[in-house]
Design goal:
three-stranded antiparallel β-sheet; 5 helices; single chain; rod-shaped; 2 domains; eight-stranded antiparallel β-sheet; mainly beta
Length: 355
């Protein structure tokens, strides 16, 4: 995943206790690390592995842009005066010691936003030993920082029930990955799902006299898809699974269709997947196929009646959050359609060889 740069947030020592429990929304972010947009439009590049019969190509690992639930950013310098240098563990420790006396009494829960004092001292030692250490804080557009926090403390209800630790030191440029909501991942997977427009073949088609490729008035005309996957095979389903690399977050989307809809001026026919797959062959019973009977010739339609072949797909999803919670629900449906022109001719007898 790519990460954003710091945000500009001004928090006085006296107000820190309230601020750490609910970090302010992020402002503009753009440091060339992959974060895009401002405010609620902020997104990060997420490496995901996709699979399933609805995955593009043969699946594999790709990068998608998603709005994170929360993420880590270097502590902004303007949290104090003089400024704090997030890349200098000693500077951060001095800032912490300055505000620590304020984190008592009614503001005592604010202390839980920071790690133990020993962590500050260890960060200084690690820096002196040659590690490149930066202090980070958790940011969130929704104020939900818990999915990113290394520790969430229970506190009395009047203090908000829970306080998450939001400050921690990490090797520069290597904070924990942003947290991604499984439903957001499912929505993206739905957009990636490959469901082709239904390409149809039909019978009869006149090869002799009359309009080229025409069918006949009041004669059942068979339609079928040229690829079973266009209607999800006989079961009418397509699936795609997306897993965020390095986390336990995953989402699997299942799209299900009722089959092929064939709509023409004056009527329509809905055919379940197994029927939409059935090709006409000599001796076939018309009752077994996806058939349409045109009551009139296509006079007034130079190229023939416009016939729309379409599939409607209901989409559901299931998945897991980073802490193993099972989630799921419904997504917006998908639709695929194509239009073909079907000339319809009047005849008294069948043209030999047309069917």
């Amino acid at each position: 995943m790519h990460r954003s740069a710091r945000i500009a947030v001004s928090v006085s020592a006296a107000a820190l206790a309230a601020a750490v429990a609910a970090p302010l929304p992020a402002g503009a972010r753009d440091d060339g690390t992959g974060g895009e947009g401002t405010g609620n439009g902020y997104e990060v590049g997420v490496e995901v592995t996709i699979s399933g019969d609805g995955a593009p190509g043969t699946g594999g690992t790709i990068e998608v842009s998603l709005p994170p639930v929360c993420w880590w950013e270097p502590i902004p310098s303007n949290v104090a005066d003089p400024p704090v240098d997030a890349t200098d563990p000693k500077s951060v420790y001095e800032w912490f010691k300055d505000i620590l006396p304020h984190l008592s009494g009614h503001a005592a829960s604010g202390r839980l936003a920071f790690p133990d004092t020993q962590v500050f001292k260890d960060a200084i030692k690690r820096e002196k030993a040659g590690e490149d250490i930066t202090w980070y804080q958790i940011s969130s557009n929704s104020k939900d920082v818990k999915p990113c926090s290394p520790e969430v403390h229970d506190v009395p209800p009047q203090r908000g029930d829970e306080v998450a630790q939001i400050y921690a030191p990490f090797v520069a440029g290597e904070p924990p990955e942003p947290a991604v909501d499984p439903e957001t991942l499912a929505i993206e997977a739905r957009e990636l799902m490959v469901i082709d427009e239904p390409d149809v073949e039909r019978n009869p088609k006149i090869d002799g006299s009359g309009p080229v490729g025409a069918t006949f008035v009041n004669i059942p005309t068979w339609f079928w898809v040229t690829d079973p996957e266009m209607v999800g095979g006989a079961e009418g389903t397509r699936t795609i699974r997306a897993e965020v690399l390095g986390t336990g977050v995953w989402a699997e989307v299942t799209a299900e269709t009722g089959g092929l809809s064939v709509a023409y001026p004056g009527g329509s026919q809905q055919c379940p997947p197994e029927v939409a797959l059935r090709e006409w062959s000599p001796g076939s019973s018309d009752a077994a196929g996806c058939t349409v009977s045109f009551p009139r010739a296509s006079v007034g339609f130079p190229d023939g009646y416009p016939v729309e072949a379409s599939t409607q797909w209901n989409a559901t999803w299931e998945g897991e959050t980073g802490d193993g919670e099972s989630v799921g629900g419904e997504l917006d449906p998908l639709q695929r359609s194509t239009t073909v022109n079907v000339p319809v001719a009047e005849v008294q007898t069948l043209v030999q060889g047309a069917r």
